[in-house]
């Protein structure tokens, strides 16, 4: 049977403007977590749980790292939580990124803003396989940027910002390599970015991690739907995703 | 004797707690968390005659003490529900209530007739109160004459007890209750969600794609209690009370106000185990407040 679990906050760090990193301990969740999955976190004072993607896992320590940007009442409340406090969590939820890749393949990772965290967990996992990884990270501006150094430690990394305050000025789509140089791409970020990326890389096999306001987070309430090219005409982001093949969903 | 057992019109329940329609799908996802046989009943997500894909997203939004939803009656259609979902739920030792919706009298009749084929569905809940679809549902739920007509139509066709789920978005809930009771309803479900909305400051637009949605959760509990209380004093048929229930204490409040059973909706999203936990805690809560059974508490809070 699935369970509702408690996680202890071991550390909370502000790593960029409005952006926090939290280290949460729970061995069962850390054991099961795969790149692309998320935690559905109950925040006292809020009716709805908040889905937050998993940015890293340390199975030896039984910990999970999450990153969140304060963008509303729920994340503002979560930012008040500190070391030693507990969080009530469902998870790991959803299906993660497919991790089987072509031998010696060229992998393109694309992360935009608070879509970067699940891409980092993925990058670490893929780095242990035989492949060439190139990461393209986009942020609004320098003060919102994070994890660029951590990506640089494991793969070739390019950063862009909307105003050029860090890396090149522009959007992730302005510096993507040519289609023929990529075997598989993985992307997570705001919807306009995912749309632009899937158009630009339409001839490449790729996977998108989607975000949506969720209700139950387990597949029952039909709140977080995305139109899809299948018999039913839709997919549930929380249960069937949040990662989908770029070809199967209609953004 | 089981102190939690209740007998409604045509429905013998082992306990008065059931997940509310729309908050529980067809039970599959929650069956990964506990044995659905612990539940008094399951009210399935609304069935329409044909498959519906529902509204655009965002479909949900947080509100103070509650939430808004505008799913739009997404469901695979009554045939698929009978073929694929009912047999799954029938594998659990619980009652199955089918929520039925439509945009015309004919559609309600067709869906009700379809459920006649299966003995695994024990009752119908007539959804005349969905605030989130452009056509149908709501117009039947805000006009007493139309509510009576759809109740009569479904009663004439169905071989099952019919509970009519009323909308709180009316001036006088008692008029609605009297109309459907006189039309032959076996029971009432009170209440559906209240129409509300939120604005997105960043986009300067309504937050929900449907613009408005149905408010549920703790915020609406006082309204639901008041409506159960008012209706119970005038109408004899049993009431399934719902609206913001999250604890065994909440259940007792609804029993005292006149509900014979209760449905739990939004609280399932916060805690997938909330229904079995309420069922486990209910005997002790009844005892603490001087009741030896659920039946004994029904309507005891109504001042003479």
Report on the architecture of this protein.
Chain B: Catalyzes the conversion of dihydroorotate to orotate with NAD(+) as electron acceptor. The complex is a heterodimer of chains A (251) and B (304). By secondary structure, chain A is an alpha/beta fold. Chain A folds into 2 domains: 5-93, Beta Barrel (Elongation Factor Tu (Ef-tu), domain 3); 105-209, Nucleotide-binding domain of ferredoxin-NADP reductase (FNR) module (Rossmann fold, 3-Layer(aba) Sandwich), CATH 3.40.50. Chain A has helices spanning 27-32, 73-78, 116-127, 148-152, 191-200; strands at 5-16, 19-25, 38-42, 50-58, 63-69, 86-93, 105-112, 131-139, 156-161, 168-169, 184-188, 205-209, 225-227, 234-236, 243-245. Chain A is globular, with a radius of gyration of 17 Å. Chain B is α/β, with parallel strands linked by helices and 304 residues long. Chain B has helices at residues 78-90, 105-116, 138-142, 144-157, 173-182, 221-232, 248-257, 267-270, 274-288, 294-297, and strands at 6-8, 11-13, 17-19, 41-43, 60-63, 66-69, 95-100, 123-127, 162-165, 187-190, 194-196, 199-200, 205-206, 213-216, 239-242, 261-264. In chain B, strands 3-16-15-10-9-8-7-4 form an 8-stranded parallel sheet. In chain B, strands 5-6-14-11 form a 4-stranded antiparallel sheet, with no helix packed on it. In chain B, strands 1-2 form a two-stranded antiparallel ribbon. In chain B, strand 5 (60-63) and strand 6 (66-69) form a beta hairpin. Chain A binds chain B through residues 1-4, 42, 46-49, 72-74, 90, 212-227, 232-234, 239, and chain B through 22-25, 28-30, 32-34, 45, 51, 53-54, 57-63, 65-67, 69, 71, 74, 76, 217-218, 266, 268-273.
Radius of gyration of chain B: 18 Å
Roughly what percent helix of chain A?
10-25%
The CATH superfamily of chain B is identified as: Aldolase class I
Which structural category do the helix and sheet elements of chain B fall into?
Answer: alpha/beta
Q: What's the structural domain tally of chain B? A: 1
Distance between the termini of chain B: 30 Å
Tally of DSSP β-strands of chain B: 16
Q: Major sheet of chain B, described briefly?
A: 8 strands, parallel
What is the CATH top level name of chain B?
Alpha Beta
């Amino acid at each position: 049977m699935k369970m509702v679990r408690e996680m202890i906050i071991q550390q909370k760090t502000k790593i960029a403007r409005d952006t926090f990193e939290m280290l949460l301990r729970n061995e069962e969740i850390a054991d099961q977590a795969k790149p692309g999955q998320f935690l559905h976190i109950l925040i006292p004072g809020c009716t709805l749980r908040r889905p937050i993607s998993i940015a890293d896992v340390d199975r030896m320590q039984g910990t999970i790292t999450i990153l969140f940007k304060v963008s509303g009442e729920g994340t503002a409340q979560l930012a008040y939580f500190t070391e030693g406090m507990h969080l009530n969590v469902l998870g790991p939820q959803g299906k993660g990124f497919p991790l089987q890749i072509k031998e010696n393949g060229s992998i393109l990772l694309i992360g935009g803003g608070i879509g970067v965290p699940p891409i980092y967990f993925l990058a670490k996992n893929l780095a242990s396989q035989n492949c060439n990884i190139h990461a393209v990270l986009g942020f609004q501006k320098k003060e919102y940027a994070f994890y660029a150094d951590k990506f640089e430690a494991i793969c070739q990394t390019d950063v862009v910002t909307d105003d050029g305050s860090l890396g090149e000025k522009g959007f992730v789509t302005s510096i993507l390599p040519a289609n023929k140089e990529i075997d598989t791409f993985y992307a997570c970020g705001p919807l306009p970015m995912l749309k632009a990326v899937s158009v630009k890389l339409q001839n490449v096999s790729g996977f998108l991690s989607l975000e949506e306001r969720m209700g139950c987070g387990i597949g029952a309430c039909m709140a977080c739907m995305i139109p899809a090219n299948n018999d039913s005409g839709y997919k549930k982001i929380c249960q069937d995703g949040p990662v989908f093949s770029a070809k199967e969903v209609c953004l | 004797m089981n102190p939690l057992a209740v007998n409604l019109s045509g429905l013998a329940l082992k306990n008065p707690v059931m997940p509310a329609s729309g908050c529980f799908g067809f039970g599959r996802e929650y069956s990964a968390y506990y044995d659905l046989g612990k539940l008094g009943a399951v009210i399935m997500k609304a069935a329409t005659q044909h498959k519906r894909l529902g509204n655009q997203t965002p479909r949900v939004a947080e509100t103070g003490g509650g939430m808004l939803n505008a799913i739009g009656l997404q469901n695979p259609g009554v045939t698929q529900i009978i073929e694929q979902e009912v047999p799954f739920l029938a594998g659990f030792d619980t009652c199955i209530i089918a929520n039925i919706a439509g945009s015309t009298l004919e559609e309600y009749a067709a869906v009700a007739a379809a459920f006649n084929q299966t003995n695994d569905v024990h009752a119908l809940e007539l959804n005349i109160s969905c605030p989130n679809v452009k056509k149908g549902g709501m117009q039947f739920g805000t006009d007493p004459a139309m509510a009576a007509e759809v109740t009569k139509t479904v009663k004439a066709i169905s071989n099952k007890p019919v509970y009519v789920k009323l909308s709180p978005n009316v001036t006088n809930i008692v008029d609605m209750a009297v109309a459907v009771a006189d039309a032959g309803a076996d029971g009432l479900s009170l209440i559906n969600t209240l129409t509300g909305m939120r604005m997105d400051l960043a986009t300067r637009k309504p937050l929900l794609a449907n613009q408005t949605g149905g408010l549920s959760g703790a915020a609406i509990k006082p309204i639901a209690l008041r409506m159960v209380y008012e209706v119970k004093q005038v109408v004899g048929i049993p009431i399934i009370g719902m609206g913001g229930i999250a604890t065994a204490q909440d259940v007792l409040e609804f029993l005292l106000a006149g509900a014979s059973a209760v449905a739990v909706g939004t609280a399932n999203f916060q805690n997938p185990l909330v229904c079995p936990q309420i069922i486990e805690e209910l005997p002790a809560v009844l005892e603490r407040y001087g009741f030896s059974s659920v039946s004994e508490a029904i309507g005891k809070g109504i001042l003479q």
